[in-house]
Q: What sequence folds into this?
């Protein structure tokens, strides 16, 4: 009996030793996966003529973070569904065209695929401190119910200002709040019909851009040209003219150095027509740069639209682009959460010359 017990004890200890030698690597690997969040890289691939390239596989791509190769762990093909926040600028120069905006938005919604989910965001006026202000309005949460979306479009209202930056932040923090369901990971997009000229926000562009980037949202803009309309209303009698907001004036003067001797004027009526046009030009140029920067960073696009008829065509193009997006996922080899921006580069493999990839360009780990 003693021999048997001794043998059993030795055998049991041997099993424990073998287990202890083989188990830690598996546990260590699991710890890495738990502590390091997957980085999603939504992207689109086109050939030399600009047409989307379909039916690609994971081995057609290579991903680099800060120049270092990363192992692609996850891959979603173009037939996976998308979640879209549709931001409609319903203020200022667009208020008179609300029916045309709704019609253009319907074209976009009808161009999406079954399973794609949409939230509609617009502007509305509310009374705060005895004055009317414009705020973002999430008209409906994400849904793939087309009847509910058509009803939501009918409820879209207007605002007396343009809280554009606040609306971008609302998209990030409300529409795309929390972790997406597995099938929508890396497949979230903002589609904004706007001129990008903010007049009423509490927040700023940098905070909105960071919030959208943190959530990996691809940003598409249909840049509606309202400048001629705005400047036509801007000139002449200061009492009857369309005025700059104080936020717009501060944004304009912030483009000059602190050493500039330019007089900073807050009273609109003291501005001559030449100064008004100069301010308008700067604000529209700044809006254009901001849209392009956010689209480039996120792998999205900017579509210029001369008017709302052009916007319909642009919406169709955006829907087509979203419908041909891939998504790659990798666990970064640098697992530090140091708050420093990291660049992402995607390379194509095994494709004909002239193929081009448009992808998310970076992120900031938190």
A:
């Amino acid at each position: 009996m003693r021999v048997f017990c001794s043998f059993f004890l030795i055998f049991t200890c041997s099993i424990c030793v073998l287990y202890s030698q083989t188990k830690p690597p598996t546990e260590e690997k699991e710890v890495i996966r738990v502590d390091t969040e997957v980085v999603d890289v939504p992207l689109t691939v086109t050939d030399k003529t600009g047409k989307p390239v379909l039916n690609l596989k994971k081995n057609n791509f290579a991903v680099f973070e800060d120049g270092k190769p990363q192992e692609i762990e996850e891959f979603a093909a173009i037939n996976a569904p998308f979640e879209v926040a549709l931001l409609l600028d319903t203020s200022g120069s667009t208020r008179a065209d609300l029916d045309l905006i709704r019609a253009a938005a319907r074209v976009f919604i009808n161009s999406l695929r079954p399973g794609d989910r949409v939230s509609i965001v617009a502007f509305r006026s509310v009374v705060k401190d005895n004055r009317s202000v414009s705020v973002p309005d999430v008209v409906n949460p994400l849904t793939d119910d087309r009847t509910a979306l058509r009803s939501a479009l009918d409820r879209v209202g207007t605002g007396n200002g343009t809280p554009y930056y606040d609306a971008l932040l609302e998209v990030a923090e409300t529409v795309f709040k929390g972790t997406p369901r597995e099938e929508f990971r890396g497949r979230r997009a903002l589609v904004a019909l706007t001129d990008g000229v903010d007049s009423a926000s509490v927040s700023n562009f940098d905070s909105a851009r960071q919030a959208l980037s943190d959530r990996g949202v691809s940003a598409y803009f249909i840049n509606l040209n309202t400048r001629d309309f705005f400047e036509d209303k801007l000139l002449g009698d200061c009492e009857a003219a369309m005025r700059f907001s104080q936020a717009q004036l501060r944004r304009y003067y912030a483009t000059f150095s602190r050493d500039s001797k330019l007089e900073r004027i807050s009273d609109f009526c003291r501005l001559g027509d030449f100064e008004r046009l100069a301010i308008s030009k700067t604000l529209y140029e700044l809006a254009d740069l901001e849209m392009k920067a956010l689209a480039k960073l996120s792998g999205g696009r900017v579509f210029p639209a001369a008017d709302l008829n052009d916007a319909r065509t642009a919406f169709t193009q955006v829907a087509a682009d979203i419908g041909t997006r891939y998504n790659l996922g990798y666990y970064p080899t640098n697992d530090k959460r140091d708050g420093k921006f990291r660049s992402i580069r995607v390379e194509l493999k095994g494709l004909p010359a002239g193929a081009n990839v448009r992808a998310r360009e970076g992120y900031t780990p938190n």
User: Anything to note?
Assistant: The first helix runs from residue 2 to 35. Residues 246 and 328 are 43 Å apart (CA to CA).
